[in-house]
Design goal:
Elements lengths: L11 H5 L3 H65 L3 H25 L7 H18 L1
Helix pairs in contact: 2-3, 2-4
Length: about 140
């Protein structure tokens, strides 16, 4: 918002010389302009939050696929153990462990990228604007 949008100290004389209708029109215009900017900010933040949530969803889906692969490898390993009683099962357990570790890492990274507080910038500016408005009209 620029200096023309709000009254400053040098503007007091012109403000005092305005009629009530002009004052209300000016206030109305400022409120509409502020609301428009708040809506624009909210849209931009919502888009960013959606992008982050999609990233989180993709990470969780990848973790789920890796978990299913882990279960499959565990079953294959159990089959080798029961069928042969040879050291081949050690290789199967190593692969199973690696897949499990990979799924846990992907899930942890995805979880950290989730949106924890929706629209924080919008909330902050609305609170600030309300505080300014209360100060002006008090």
């Amino acid at each position: 918002m620029n200096n023309k949008d709000y009254q400053n100290e040098n503007d007091k004389n012109t403000f005092e010389s305005m009629s009530v209708a002009q004052i209300f029109k000016r206030i109305k215009n400022q409120v509409f302009m502020l609301a428009k900017k708040e809506v624009t900010l909210a849209k931009e933040e919502a888009k960013e939050d959606l992008r982050r949530e999609l990233f989180t969803l993709k990470g969780i889906l990848i973790a789920a696929v890796l978990f299913l692969l882990t279960v499959c490898m565990l079953l294959v390993t159990l089959t080798f153990i029961l069928g042969n009683y040879v050291s081949l099962w050690v290789a199967g357990l190593i692969i199973t462990g690696v897949l499990l570790l990979a799924s846990l890492i992907v899930a942890a990274v995805a979880w950290k990228k989730r949106v924890t507080s929706a629209l924080p910038k919008t909330k902050k500016t609305i609170k600030k604007d309300i505080k300014i408005a209360k100060g002006r009209f008090a």
